[in-house]
Amino acid sequence: MNRPGDRSQAIAGDGAVSPAGTVESAYDRWAEGYDSWPNPTRDLDAVVLRRQDLSLAGRDVLEIGCGTGKNTAWLGARARRVVAADLSAGMLARARRRVAPESVRYLRFDLTRRWPLAGACVDLVVDDLVLEHVENLGAVFTEACRVLRPGGELFVCELHPFRQLRGGQAQFPDPESGEPVLVPAYLHDVADYTNAALGAGFSVLHLGEWRDEGAPETELPRLLSLHFVRA
């Protein structure tokens, strides 16, 4: 059951191959081809993160949903320490092969449950393309607030709700059939993200809407970014 004010609902696709029923198994299947298959959402997300005015030098960072490490190397080269976390063992295995600096530690856990981290242990939490797979946003924002030090920041970048309403959803081609596999997802409005963050004790610093490079202004934004600070 959703909490009051939580308007999320599951998204289902027509004619898609079942991803074995879980986000974890879907991303395990996706891991081998994640970096090589065309994915404009993945690519724009990397651009958006690098354009943020995030203070990284001398700071401890938690990256949730690190995937194959597409952003981990960039964060690890700039922050004091990075904990790169993901639910998928397959994704983490590829990230470890791709990025192995001493400043990065890898951790596997389910972010919908209590995170295996001490309170007030990091300065920045980075979340990229994860929350569309989470029904209860409030639990995630509460945990992010718990692990952040006072004044710490949370940066979120997600598939834009407008894209979801038009049928957009994380997906990949089945390696054997080539048919699309849809990763389980939930629709969240901009208000859902913002209100969940405010309810957990964050203040809003900035919201951004991002279109593909060179796309006309009439094109729907592909990504939504939200930058929060912990009180």
Please summarize what this structure is.
This protein is an alpha/beta fold and 231 residues long. The chain is 26% helix and 28% strand. Helix 5 crosses helix 7.
Task: Provide a descriptive summary of the structure in words.
The protein has 231 residues and is of the alpha/beta class. It has one domain (19-230): 3-Layer(aba) Sandwich (Rossmann fold), CATH 3.40.50.150. 26% of the residues lie in helices and 28% in strands. The chain contains seven helices and eleven strands. It has helices at residues 23-30, 40-50, 72-76, 89-98, 137-147, 161-165, 190-200, and strands at residues 9-11, 60-64, 81-86, 104-108, 122-128, 148-159, 171-173, 180-182, 185-187, 202-210, 223-230. The strands form three sheets. A seven-stranded mixed β-sheet has the order 4-3-2-5-6-11-10, sandwiched between helices. A two-stranded antiparallel ribbon has the order 1-9. Helix 4 (89-98) links the parallel strand 3 and strand 4 (104-108). Helix 5 (137-147) crosses helix 7. It is globular, with a radius of gyration of 17 Å. It starts with 8 loop residues before the first strand and ends with a strand. Mean pLDDT is 91; it is low at 1-6 and 13-20.
